[in-house]
Amino acid sequence: MMRAAPVARIFSAENDAMQSARLKVYAIDGVTPVIEPGAFVHPDAVLIGDVIVEEGCYIGPCASLRGDFGRIIVRKGSNVQDGCILHSLPGFDSVIGTNGHIGHGAIIHSAQLEPNVLVGMNSVVMDHARIGESAMIAAMSFVKAGAEIPPGHLAAGTPARVLRELSEKERAMKIEATRIYQELARRCLASLQPVEPLSHFDPARPRVDANLSLPLRTKSDTDKGIA
Fold first, then answer.
1. Is residue 204, in this structure, part of any structural domain at all?
2. Is residue 49 part of a domain?
3. How many domains does the chain have?
4. Cα(123)–Cα(142) distance, rounded to whole angstroms?
5. Which end of the chain is more exposed for a tag (fewer CB within 10 A), N or C?
6. 3-class DSSP state for residue 79?
7. pLDDT in tens, 98-153
8. Residue among 76, 122, 81 at smallest CA distance from 95
9. What is the domain extent for residue 95?
């Protein structure tokens, strides 16, 4: 008979609030995922086997990190957003470098990303690809197996090709977006909890964006191919 998944404790040092959540975390062949203190993993994410999530990371709902063939490492301060898939081949460590930013629905398959990389929504990064530090992969791109994207450059397309060097404004936008996801990890640790929905809307209730400001992508940014 299979044993039930363990009940993990999600806690916040900021306000000592604590809640119970049944995380979908599974050992295989005696290897158990590691979630360092200060990382937030949504209860609807799935972690299997040889997965290491370092402190300050955010792992979003319905993300799948399958360390059943090879090791997956998500370095400090990174975010892996809703619906992302991370997998690795035998004998290879799939790595999201420090302060990595993996957009909604992206797939990272047995690839290595240097620090401060952004992978745009619904992009695919294939086997043994290497993405240089502070590079960006535009949304909906396909990075071929074995491809190398140089540091600080934008790549886009299917297959992805290097378009140009990133501007200082673009680099700053990425850093700020990642910082906000790091703050989201702290907010989730402090206050995220399962509830029953309300039956009526109160127009006077607080807004979650009251103290938030994200860098906006303009039409000009889109025309330049920014993720």
1. no
2. yes
3. 1
4. 6
5. N
6. strand
7. 999 999 999 999 999 999 999 999 999 999 999 999 999 999 999 999 999 999 99
8. 76
9. 8-165
Burial of 211 (0-12, 13-18, 19+ CB in 10 A): exposed
- Ranges of H-type helices in 111-212: 168-191
Of the chain, the end-to-end C-alpha distance in Å amounts to 46
Please state the rounded mean pLDDT for residues 70-91. 98
- Residue 191 in any domain: the answer is no
- C-alpha–C-alpha distance, residues 41 and 50, integer Å: 16
Q: In the Cβ-directed half-sphere of 54, how many Cα atoms lie within 13 Å?
A: 13
Alpha helix locations (H) across the chain? 168-191, 219-223
For residue 25 the two structure tokens come to: 């975390």
Q: Is residue 74 a contact partner of residue 57, using CB atoms and an 8 Å limit? A: yes
184 domain-assigned = no
Q: What is the pTM of this model?
A: 0.86
Judge whether 77 and 96 are in contact, CB under 8 Å: no
CATH number, residue 81: 2.160.10.10
d(CA 41, CA 206): 25
